[in-house]
Amino acid sequence: MKISGSIKETRDQVKEWKNQGLSVALVPTMGYLHDGHKSLMERARKENDKVVVSIFVNPMQFGPGEDYDSYPRDLERDAGLCEEAGVDWIFHPEVEEMYGPNFCGYVDMHTLPEKLCGASRPVHFRGVQTVVSKLFHIIPAQRAYFGQKDAQQLAIIRRMVIDLDFDIEIVGCPIVREADGLAKSSRNTYLSAEERAQAVILNQSLEVAMALIEGGETDAGKVKAAITEKLNTCSAARIDYVEIVSFDNIQPIQKVEGAVLIAIAVYIGTTRLIDNRIIL
Ligand code: AMP
């Protein structure tokens, strides 16, 4: 396994693999890898000849006052986990390699980024789309693997690939959870022991929603109210949003039918966590 910070070297290697007739997968990450990331790598490993993981904490997708500086980083540990997962190449650029001195090109979109995380993080998805577009150009893989943990991101990337004709297949992978149901996240490391115990409320509130829906409830307002009520039983939880939207266009819906995304963002102490259920 090789680690490279060079766009040219990485692109040349991927082109060479493709010239040899090998299939190449890309798994974009911000590092501080956990079993959620590993599940993406393992799926990529099974379905492709070569696996490239990008590790880049992308400053463009963090707003002012967000956790760009404190975001956890540990390349050595990440490299070990990638090696275990059978990764062939880590692309780990410096910020200067990705964003040169006169950088001013952005990829943006209407509608899909406006609600949910885009409402509380206004520059986030522009940063995500821009960096993912760059990664797709640097690493012209046949397939790229994304987690359903970031469901709005997945919907936006799928839309972007269709609208801008990227020649890449987007593979969505299920959320990997801790034993008590908390979705794995690099940001879970911010939680104190007490907060960590309370953070289980996110998944529990979504369980309440699913039980209602499985029992025949289709009124999105009632399901949202039940999630909110459950979250409010936790003293450490402060709701950013509880939304039920169409998974196709991320717009609010009144009735739970078709492809539906139930998405929540909740502060536990000062740490903002997200979780969701997708009903297809
Ligand atoms: P990040 O490093 O947080 O940007 O995440 C990189 C990729 O890993 C994204 O596609 C995430 O959706 C995915 N991911 C993060 N956490 C999980 C998880 N718990 N289960 C599945 N995929 C995940």
Task: Detail the topology: elements first, then pairings.
Blueprint: E1 2-4, H1 7-19, E2 24-29, H2 35-47, E3 50-55, H3 75-84, E4 89-91, H4 95-98, H5 117-120, H6 124-138, E5 143-147, H7 151-163, E6 169-173, H8 193-198, H9 201-214, H10 220-231, E7 237-246, E8 260-268, E9 271-279
Parallel strand pairs: 1-4, 2-3, 2-5, 3-4, 5-6
Antiparallel strand pairs: 7-8, 8-9
This protein binds adenosine monophosphate (AMP).
Report on the structure:
The protein is an alpha/beta fold and 280 residues long. It folds into two domains: 2-173, HUPs (Rossmann fold, 3-Layer(aba) Sandwich), CATH 3.40.50.620; 186-279, Pantoate-beta-alanine ligase, C-terminal domain (Pantoate--beta-alanine Ligase, Chain: A,domain 2). 37% of the residues lie in helices and 20% in strands. The chain contains ten helices and nine strands. It has helices at 7-19, 35-47, 75-84, 95-98, 117-120, 124-138, 151-163, 193-198, 201-214, 220-231, and strands at residues 2-4, 24-29, 50-55, 89-91, 143-147, 169-173, 237-246, 260-268, 271-279. The strands form two sheets. A six-stranded parallel beta sheet has the order 1-4-3-2-5-6, with helices on both faces. A hairpin with a 2-residue loop joins strand 8 and strand 9. Helix 9 (201-214) runs antiparallel to helix 10 (220-231). The two termini are 37 Å apart. The model has no long low-confidence stretch (mean pLDDT 97). Bound molecules: adenosine monophosphate. Adenosine monophosphate binds at residues 29-30, 36-37, 39-40, 146-147, 149-150, 173, 175-176, 183-186.
